[in-house]
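The records we work with from here on pair a chain with its fold. Taken together, the tokens spell out the fold as the letters spell out the chain. The record below shows the convention in full.
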Amino acid sequence: MKTMSNVDPKELAKFGDLAHRWWDPNSEFRPLHEINPLRLDWIDRHVGLDGKRVLDIGCGGGILAEAMAGRGAIVTGIDLSEKPLGVARLHLYESGLKVDYRQVAAEELASEMPAAFDVVTCMEMLEHVPDPASTVRACAELVKPGGAVFFSTINRNPKSYLFAVIGAEYILKLLPRGTHDYARFIRPAELARYAREAGLQNEEIIGMHYNPFTKQYSLGPGSGVNYLMRTQRRC
């Protein structure tokens, strides 16, 4: 089951073409591999993943989904791009972990399985869809009352254009050119509004920072470029 209403076919094709390189830590997906321990620990610290029923929206090749399964979560990963899901399923044979991968839109799954999950994650995905507010509403519908929803995305301002587009794609070459569309970046106030209107309470905003000298990522104050938001569905 899938719907193509809130999706950009060019975005699907872009990540589909790179799918075979998803689990190569030295590929175009190297930043995802390097930030994954940070975001995994952040999520686990707040919800205790062991035994939780978790949905990872926009799971791609499964880097975060597998990591959460490794912490004992019962994980479902969804994406609309077929090739990354194929890679994700194949990688389970190597890792020995269990993740239920499905090709379905968040909005469609929300109609099928409302309030079914203890935790929902939607990471590095909102800036790639035409209607991020629709995805946020689906997240809120999918999580149980009192459950946690985690987002990560990129702020929209001159600094983020300089660092996330010019710096990351053209100078440091951390990402392929054209990975991001600056017009789709989302200010924290905008994401907070989408969350509030969907019935989610904002609990925390934290920045994801990259040091080009040490080539290390870290979490800390400041949401000028990449940031993560932790929310809770109101009971």
Q: What stands out?
A: Residues 36 and 64 are 6 Å apart (CA to CA). The two ends are 29 Å apart (CA to CA). The chain has a mean pLDDT of 89. The chain is about 40% helix and 25% strand.
